[in-house]
Amino acid sequence: MYLIGLTGGIASGKSTVARRLYEHGAVHLDADELARRVVEPGTPGLAAIIAEFGEGVLRADGSLDRAKLGELVFDDDEARARLNAIVHPAVRELSGRLIAKAEAENPDAVVVYDVPLLVEASVDHPFDLVVVTNAPRKTQVKRLVEERGLDLNQAVARVDAQVDNTRRLAIADVVIDTDGTLAHTMSQTDALWADIAARRAARA
C-alpha cells in the first residue's frame, strides 16, 4: 500500500486534486466525511458531544446541528479544544480501520487521505507522501465568495481561522500550485501520479 496525506487550506483546490487521483485509481478517504460519521445518532461521539455541550446542539430529529455547534466553538478556543478532543481521536480510529481495510483488499492500493486539518490535528498516520495544495489567501477568499456564496467577511474569517500556510508547506513532500487554471492543477496532479508509480516501482 502507498499512503498519501493530502492537505491544504480551505478553497485551495484539495477536492479537485483528490478527485483526479481517484480517477487515476486511488482509494479516497475524506476526513470531513469521517468526522460526520463519528457523530451520527447512536455513536459514542455524539453522546460525548451532548454530555459536553448539552442537548441544545441537537436538531429535532436527534442529529447533530453542526451550525449551532459551530457557533459555540468558533470564537472559543477552549470549547473548540474540548470538541476536538472528542472528534479527532474518533476520526483517527475510524481512518486507521479504513486504511487497513483498503490494504487488506488490495495490498498495492494507493490510498489518498484527504485531511484539511492534517497539521492542526497532528494526524500521524505513516504517510509515504504528504501533498499540499497551495493558493494565495486572496484566491482562497475569492473562491469562497464566488463558488460557495459566502460574503467577504465570512470568507476572510474562514481563511484566517485556519493554520498559516507556511506551517502546511513545512511538512509538504509535494506542493501543487492551484492558483492557475484547472488544466494546470490537473497536469501537476497527473505528474504526481506518474511520480508515485515510479516511486512504487523503485520500492518493489
UniProtKB/TrEMBL annotation:
It catalyses: 3'-dephospho-CoA + ATP = ADP + CoA + H(+). Its main location: cytoplasm. Gene3D superfamilies: P-loop containing nucleotide triphosphate hydrolases. ATP binds at residues 11-16. InterPro entries: Depp_CoAkinase, P-loop_NTPase. Pathway: Cofactor biosynthesis; coenzyme A biosynthesis; CoA from (R)-pantothenate: step 5/5. It is found in: Cytoplasm. Pfam families: CoaE. GO terms for molecular function: dephospho-CoA kinase activity. Keywords: ATP-binding, Coenzyme A biosynthesis, Cytoplasm, Kinase, Nucleotide-binding, Transferase. Its EC number is 2.7.1.24. Signal peptide: none annotated. Coiled coil: none annotated. CDD domains: DPCK. HAMAP family: Dephospho_CoA_kinase (MF_00376). PANTHER family: BIFUNCTIONAL COENZYME A SYNTHASE-RELATED, DEPHOSPHO-COA KINASE-RELATED. Belongs to the CoaE family. This is Dephospho-CoA kinase.
